[in-house]
Amino acid sequence: MWTEIQVNKLERSIKHHKAFKADPDNVELGSDTCPCCWSWISYSCAGCPISQYTGTLFCQETPFDELILAIEELEVAKHSANVNQELITELKNSVQDASQAEIGFLEEVLEYGRENK
After folding, report:
1. What whole-number distance in Å separates Cα of residue 15 and Cα of residue 20?
2. What's the confidence (pLDDT) of residue 117?
3. pLDDT of residue 46
4. Rounded CA separation 88/90 (Å)
5. Separation of alpha carbons 114 and 12, rounded Å
6. The domain containing residue 11 runs over which residues?
7. What does the pLDDT read at residue 88?
8. pTM of the predicted model, to two decimals?
9. Dihedral sign, Cα of residue 20, residue 101, residue 29, residue 83
10. CA-based diameter of the chain, in Å?
11. For the stretch 56-66, what's the b/e string if a residue is b when 16 or more beta carbons lie within 10 angstroms of its beta carbon?
């Protein structure tokens, strides 16, 4: 079902999320860092395999929402004056868990498109 371009973009998105799961201090998110968004966000996600899979726009109702929240919590804590290292470690673990959920979701989308030709 997915085109070669859609498969390539999903695979690159998975690779991108795996990279910052490995290093939550160097997270880069947003439409300017997502291979799928590069191609389809200007068209209100028309053609995006994630949007086709979920029936939503802009990755709504996906694990991406939780990932954004985890990253925001980590960034706030890192810039707070009275934060201890245990909390930072816990929040980094939350980012890694949310990253893994997003990776699993993207792999599910990829497999769905491969199986439903």
Report:
1. 9
2. 65
3. 96
4. 5
5. 16
6. 4-115
7. 93
8. 0.91
9. negative
10. 54
11. eeebeebbbeb
In angstroms, what CA-CA distances link 1 with 6, 17, 33, 49? 9, 23, 25, 10
12 burial level (CB within 10 Å; 0-12, 13-18, 19+): middle
Q: Output Rg (C-alpha) for the chain, integer angstroms.
A: 15
Residue 81 pLDDT: 83
Q: Quickly tell me which residue has 């371009």 as its tokens.
A: 5
Question: Residue 9 in 3-state DSSP?
Answer: helix
Which helix (H) or strand (E) is 37 found in, with range? helix 35-40
Q: What is the pLDDT of residues 91-108, one digit of tens each?
A: 999 999 999 999 999 999
* pLDDT interval class at 53 (50, 70, 90): very high
How many domains are contained in the chain? 1
pLDDT at residue number 26:
79
> Residue 25: its pLDDT value, please?
81
